[in-house]
Design brief:
Strand order of the largest sheet: 15-19-14-18-16-17
CATH topology of the largest domain: D-Maltodextrin-Binding Protein, domain 2
Number of domains: 2
InterPro entries: Peptide/Ni-bd, SBP_5, SBP_5_dom
Family: Belongs to the bacterial solute-binding protein 5 family.
Distance between the termini: 42 Å
Largest sheet: 6 strands, mixed
Pfam families: SBP_bac_5
GO molecular function: peptide transmembrane transporter activity
Number of helices: 15
CATH class of the largest domain: Alpha Beta
Helix content: 25-40%
Protein name: ABC transporter substrate-binding protein
Length: 534
């Protein structure tokens, strides 16, 4: 299988604190007229959002502007949250089929849809959008399986693949899959600043009304939106860009805004009480892993790595790192994202077993390890000392260093022999397939390390991952079974510490209805719900 694993590290540094604090609002609709003290009168929703805008180009977009993009643009399909009655919600494609071998995917394109610039959407517009994504998207690698794409008539798009792949999941990606007006694509091809002028060319429920860089984004309901059942809830969404979580909390509790996407986790309960609201939790795609440097003794011995895995106080890490809003990981695949399975074994906190394994491996007196974590990640700063203290109880001294993520990442890639012994990583898949992403990116063998910073190489694991990747589009249950076997190998060989999956945490103000958070779009705030609020 030809898999590209050069995944961009979007937000690995700058956006991480926001992602840890409070998840974006998954969807909202107005509460009863006059309910509470929220200012949602006259069809205006005010929001304090942590999301910055790195680009308004929907093709190049690969960062926190996803919060806005999902309201302006649409993909072929939306991937629904775990537990939904249907796996997908049709968007630009009203239906789709795949051949038995998973090599041909046919999408029936919705008629009567217009782009915000007045152009009509048809199959050719879809083809041009995906070809642009293949060529220059920030997440262009998601289209690696695509060999060719064609419009066989005005309403039919056919994709031909190099190997069986889950194009439904790819087509529902939050990055690299937006359908864009051909007129705007042509204009941006000759002017790379075209979109930065405040132009938008989507089909979504909102248009970009105005943008004050670093300060404010105003979205306006699109009058000709095709989906009458999911028409924009608000006429205007007025968003203040507020990177500081404490400031956002103050704006919310002072009723300067109706909703805040970022509130410090330690204050969640107090904020909910002040707002007469509720705290809601859900799956998120955010997963914490601790790489072992498997090239250097004593971590080249699986028994040593297993011992250290038993010496991690997992629940304490969750309680201290994310205020209890998390669950112990079943490997590096986050809960709710394919191919997550609770059949994958977990290590328990067992210091006696850890000591016995170390002694059996010839290290009864312990040793010293160097651990690094991202200095810009507040959760890591809170939970890493717990790892140090626990390892000390089995005679392992840990020297901890906080570094900017990109600095430690570059060092680990360029000089494995002298890199850290343990590297704490915060990771999430680009789209809703953590088999082709997490399991590949984090632990698949490679000649030159990019993101497999354990440097672990295992031909049997690689074969399972590669095989599963070619089955996901044609036989997902078979792919799942192979991925579970591969994750069992990760447990047994322990090239990393599988710490925890962070949860999405939302404060729901009393005057707003909030649909369930969608872990497939963690950086996107939908102001018109994909599914009705419960």
């Amino acid at each position: 299988m030809d898999v590209t694993r050069t995944r961009s590290l979007r937000l690995a540094a700058a956006g991480v604190a926001a992602a840890l604090s409070i998840a974006a609002l998954a969807a909202c609709s107005p509460g009863p007229a006059g309910a509470g003290d929220a200012k949602t009168d006259a069809g205006v929703l005010t929001v304090a959002a942590s999301a910055a805008v790195t680009t308004w180009d929907p093709v190049a977009s690969f960062s926190t502007e996803a919060l806005y993009m999902g309201n302006i643009y649409e993909p072929l399909l939306w991937k629904n949250a775990e537990g939904s009655s249907q796996e997908f919600t049709p968007a630009i494609a009203k239906s789709w089929t795949t051949s038995d071998d998973g090599l041909t995917w046919t999408f029936d394109i919705r008629k009567g849809v217009t782009f915000h610039d007045g152009e009509k959407l048809d199959a050719d517009a879809v083809v041009k959008s995906i070809q642009a994504a293949q060529e220059r998207a920030g997440a262009s690698f998601i289209w690696t399986p695509l060999e060719s794409i064609e419009a066989t008539d005005d309403a039919t798009v056919v994709m031909h693949l190099k190997y069986s792949a889950p194009m439904d999941l790819v087509a529902a990606s939050t990055y690299g899959a937006w359908i864009v007006s051909p007129k705007a694509l042509a204009a941006s091809a000759s002017d790379d600043k075209y979109f930065e002028k405040g132009v938008d060319a989507g089909t979504g429920p909102y248009t970009l009304d105005s943008y004050d860089p670093g300060s404010k984004v105003v979205l306006k309901a699109y009058d000709d939106y095709w989906n009458e059942d999911e028409a924009p809830t608000y006429g205007i969404v007025d968003i203040s860009i507020t990177p500081d979580a404490v400031t956002a909390q103050q704006m919310l509790t002072a009723k300067e805004v109706d909703f805040a996407t970022t509130v410090p986790l330690e204050n969640i309960d107090d904020v909910a009480a002040q707002m007469d609201g509720k705290v809601r939790t859900a799956n998120s795609p955010f997963n914490y892993v601790g790489y072992f440097n498997t090239l250097r003794p004593p971590l080249d011995d699986p028994k040593v790595r297993q011992a250290l895995s038993y010496a991690v106080p997992y629940q304490d890490l969750i309680d201290v790192g994310v205020q209890g809003y998390g669950t112990q990981a079943h490997g590096p695949v986050p809960k709710g994202i394919f191919p997550y399975s609770e059949d994958v074994p977990q290590y328990s906190y067992d210091l006696d077993k850890a000591e016995a394994l170390l002694a059996g491996a010839g290290h009864p007196d312990g040793f010293t390890l160097k651990l690094t974590y991202a200095s810009e990640n507040p959760a890591e700063a809170r939970f890493v000392p717990l790892i140090k203290d626990s390892f000390a109880k089995i005679g392992v001294n840990v020297e901890v260093t906080a570094e900017l993520f990109n600095q430690q990442w570059e060092k680990a890639k360029s000089d494995p022999a002298n890199a850290q012994d343990i590297f704490i990583v915060y990771y999430w898949p680009t789209y809703s397939d953590a088999g082709s992403d997490n399991l590949n990116s984090l632990f698949h063998s490679s000649e030159k390390p990019f993101f497999n910073l354990s440097y672990w190489k295992n031909a049997d694991y690689d074969a399972l991952i590669d095989k599963a990747g070619t089955l996901t589009g044609s036989d997902r249950s078979a792919a799942q079974a192979d991925y579970v076997k591969a994750m069992g190998m990760l447990y047994d060989q322990a090239p990393g510490l599988y710490l925890f999956d962070a949860q999405a945490v939302t404060v729901v103000p009393n005057a707003l209805k909030i649909a369930p958070f969608n872990e497939n779009y963690p950086f996107t705030t939908f102001f018109a719900p994909i599914e009705p609020a419960a």
